[in-house]
Design goal:
CATH superfamily of the largest domain: Bira Bifunctional Protein, Domain 2
CATH architecture of the largest domain: 2-Layer Sandwich
Largest sheet: 8 strands, mixed
Number of domains: 2
Number of strands: 16
Radius of gyration: 28 Å
Helix content: 40-55%
Order of helices and strands: HHHHEHEHEHEEHEEHEEEHEEEHEEEHH
Shape: elongated
CATH topology of the largest domain: BirA Bifunctional Protein, domain 2
Number of helices: 13
Oligomer: single chain
């Protein structure tokens, strides 16, 4: 959520940010400012009435002591009328505040000046590339490999649950477990605290990170209990400090969490969903940071490097994209995507997004820090996938497959799998 003071001072900048993100309802800014103006007028009038009521109440005792009963009675009546007026105005003030704050939830974050302006993924910039793009040649797509080897069973997963909920079997399950442990071990070595969060969150948590009101249709829900199945560990982990104050000396706080993730992915079709390309349930290690506002953009670069290092150690070729305004999310100010090369499909597959939200999430959650002088301010939050497993698995199978059909184990995973081949 944007600071209302920032919107008051920069209405046109906020409108421009909305348009750059593809949000056309810029009249929302005018509605928010109108409600804010009415709320501030009500607050000012309330202060005046309360002051007047208090002063009149104090007069009553003095008038009674002086024997001025009629004047004291008149003051009582005036005080009673003022209290009734105050009560009505308090209700009006609260209603205006709630309406303003509700509309604020629908205003997206403003893109950072370094973000390229664009409408779609065609306008994203290639920030960096790493590794050799292996040609397809004799290489097969991963779905052929796992079907032949029996490592992942999509049909039985569909029977038991539905499409996009596969079973991992034998070497497929071992590879999943090895990657999860590898990603977590690397995160801990890089200074992140490992955390195991809940897999379901309440509405306040989903609202805090910006999943609602924006991505409701993407989440699985448990209506009876009012829970959401997490689409990413970002949601529970970022809410860890909701309504809390962190000491400035403790910043940055860095956390890493492995969780399964659930996403409805409505509207996905074609080659984008074949095999492991897009699932409704998948595993991911998430990296989350709570940082001082002055360091959040340098922290974003180090977060990106932490995610890139995993791909480099796995020996997977990748590229880093700086996302344009139109291909960024509702909540981000700046975002990088890491895409791994899939030689069997001859295409790029996204495996990580690294984002800075500045104070957008923290303001919704009231996560603050206290400096050495006792001043309390909103901090900044960041997160990135480190990494999402399905497409990493796909890239490993397609990159490390041999002409004889076997798949070599990447060197960094051998301590976890203890085999030369899967």
């Amino acid at each position: 959520m944007l600071d209302i003071a920032f919107i008051r001072d920069n209405p046109e900048l906020v409108k421009q940010g909305m348009l750059q993100k593809g949000e056309k309802k810029t009249e929302l800014i005018d509605q928010v400012l109108e409600l804010d103006s009415s709320w501030r007028k009500s607050t000012h009038l309330l202060d005046e009435l309360r002051s007047k009521s208090n002063a009149t109440s104090k007069m009553i005792g003095s008038l009674m002591k002086e024997g001025k009963k009629e004047e004291a009675e008149s003051a009582r009546k005036e005080t009673a009328a003022l209290k009734e007026q105050i009560k009505e105005l308090e209700t009006e003030e609260q209603t205006l505040l709630e309406k303003r704050n509700e509309l604020l939830l629908y205003i997206p974050n403003v893109p950072h000046p370094s973000v390229p302006v664009g409408k779609s993924d065609a306008d994203n910039l290639v920030h960096a590339t790493w590794g050799e793009l292996l040609p397809k040649s004799w290489r097969r797509p991963h779905w052929d490999i796992i079907s032949e080897m029996g490592w992942i069973d999509f049909d039985r997963g569909s029977k038991v649950t539905g499409a996009g909920f596969p079973f991992y079997i034998g070497a497929g399950a071992r590879l999943q477990r090895a990657l999860i442990n590898f990603f977590l071990d690397e995160a801990v070595q890089a200074g992140y605290t490992e955390i195991q969060p809940p897999y379901f969150v309440n509405e306040d948590s989903a609202r805090g990170t910006g999943q609602i009101p924006d991505k409701e249709d993407m989440m699985y829900t448990v209506p009876r209990d009012g829970f959401f199945a997490i689409p990413t560990a970002e949601v529970p982990v970022t809410n860890y400090f909701r309504k809390e104050i962190i000491q400035e000396a403790e910043l940055p706080v860095k956390m890493a969490a492995y969780t399964p993730c659930w996403r409805r992915e409505a509207g996905s079709y074609g080659k984008d969903v074949r095999g492991l390309n897009r699932l409704h349930q998948f595993d991911k290690v998430e990296l989350v940071k709570f940082v001082h506002p002055e360091t959040s953009y340098s922290e974003l670069e180090s977060l990106r490097q932490d995610a890139e290092n995993l791909l480099q150690k796995l020996g997977l070729s990748y590229r880093t994209l700086l996302m344009c305004t139109g291909d960024m999310g509702f909540t981000q100010t700046k975002k990088y995507d890491l895409e791994v090369w899939s030689p069997g499909q001859e295409r790029w597959l996204e495996v990580s997004s690294c984002s800075n939200f500045e104070s957008f999430q923290a303001r919704r959650m009231m996560v603050r820090y206290k400096d050495k002088n006792g001043a309390v301010s909103i901090l900044h939050t960041l997160n990135g996938s480190g990494l999402a497993l399905p497409r990493v698995v796909a890239a490993i199978l397609e990159t490390y497959q041999q002409e004889d059909g076997r798949v070599r184990v990447p060197e960094v995973l051998k301590p976890y799998i203890n085999r030369e081949y899967l």
